[in-house]
């Protein structure tokens, strides 16, 4: 069933709409905490997958947000994002910028105190669940991205801009200078600048220094030292530092402890690390190999990572919706996920979509469509 997004229609619809938009805003917030990993394609796919999961039409959602962007239903950041990437509308960067700019100018809160692109010393504290506050933070991010896109997304290329500040003791500039030498495989220089930046408390530099010790880049390999540095960085909330601590406990020759590994993977998953979200989902689905099997927890994490774009998780979610005996069984949702995968030319999905049309599973019976998808499946086996 497709939800009717008339926000004034009834209380039930309001709850559904708020749930969807809050989920979008919360996940976008987590994504933007690590600006270095900003990925436009991932953002676009994430929004489309969320709408697919709820069976919502992008055009309908877009129009609903425009109509209902009021003080109590503030979605200006999402409206701007939809305009920028053409989700449910024609792409219009000028309109997107206008929305972000006006929203920021009208915002009287001191957002910038809550949001730092560089996370110098402290982790960003997650704000409450208030939709309006999430909206304000994300709007600030996109407004800044429009104004300073080249600087924000091309820091490594602009390393020369950081040399003077790095020499004058700025830990952020020292970190980016370290990155430049790291990417050039000049690990001695990289370690020099990462060390200086680490002394200033930069959690990213501490993490990179940990990598050097873990892999033996420019120094003698030392897993114990690497773990110490990863732990120090992880205390600052860096998601991939949390994951690396988990890796040390899972794979380490010195301090192997898979129970501790899971705890750190779970922390990273909660910070939005996609790899750890999938690891945690598998962990809960392993029939007690590492931890007691927990279907509810598996579903929560697998669904999340499926929406975030993991193909394996998408197949597992579709299969669960199709074959589960739980209250989550939903053949229509299963069909939608298989159709999404089939449109991405995944052979197994092509075969299942053909069967769904043939047997009327999750969709109406349609032999013409069944034949069409069967042909596409056979053609996929040729290549």
From TrEMBL:
Alphabetical list of Pfam families matching this protein: Sel1 (PF08238)
Annotated Gene3D superfamilies: Tetratricopeptide repeat domain
Name the UniProt record assigns to this protein: Skt5p
Record organism: Rhizophagus irregularis (strain DAOM 197198w)
Lineage: Eukaryota, Fungi, Fungi incertae sedis, Mucoromycota, Glomeromycotina
